[in-house]
């Protein structure tokens, strides 16, 4: 847990990212760029895993210090512009909010 983080406000997410067919490299570059700025919003990538089928699917475990930080990251204008620029090559993502049952 980050210094100064309120555990009651922390938000844990699992993102299942599906790269567009034929655009794995472009999708991975997009994810690299987006994940690199999460720290600006209180986000940390805990794990990043790739499927064994050439990386067409990526699974990310992400922690934010607050829901507000997550929502701000989603609204980041650079992220939105990059996504729009990719068009049909942009990956699709399913985000699942999770919790750690360990004390």
Question: What does the radius of gyration come to?
Answer: 14 Å
Residue stretches low in confidence (pLDDT < 50, at least 5 long) are: none
Element string (H = helix, E = strand): EHEEHHE
Tally the structural domains.
1
Proportion of beta-strand residues: 25-35%
| CATH class label | Alpha Beta
User: What's the overall average pLDDT, rounded?
Assistant: 92
Fraction of residues in helix? 25-40%
CATH level-3 fold name: Alpha-Beta Plaits
Question: Architecture, according to CATH?
Answer: 2-Layer Sandwich
* Record field, number of beta strands: 4
Looking at the chains present, what oligomeric state does this protein adopt? single chain
Query: Distance between termini?
Result: 13 Å
* Total helical segments: 3
The main β sheet shows up as:
4 strands, antiparallel
Coarse structural class: alpha+beta
Spatial arrangement of strands, main beta sheet: 2-3-1-4
Shape designation: globular
Word description of this protein:
- This protein has helices at 24-36, 67-74, 77-86; strands at residues 11-18, 43-50, 57-64, 92-98.
- With 103 residues, it is an alpha+beta fold.
- The protein has a single domain, classed as Alpha-Beta Plaits (2-Layer Sandwich).
- Strand 2 (43-50) and strand 3 (57-64) form a beta hairpin.
């Amino acid at each position: 847990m980050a210094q100064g983080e309120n555990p009651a406000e922390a938000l844990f997410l699992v993102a299942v990212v599906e790269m567009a067919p034929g655009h794995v490299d472009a999708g991975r570059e997009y994810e690299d760029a987006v994940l690199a700025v999460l720290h600006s919003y209180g986000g940390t990538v805990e794990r990043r895993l790739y499927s064994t089928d050439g990386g067409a699917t990526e699974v990310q475990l992400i922690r934010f210090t607050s829901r507000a930080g997550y929502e701000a990251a989603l609204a980041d204008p650079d992220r939105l512009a990059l996504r729009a620029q990719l068009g049909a090559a942009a990956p699709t993502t399913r985000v699942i909010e999770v919790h750690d049952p360990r004390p």
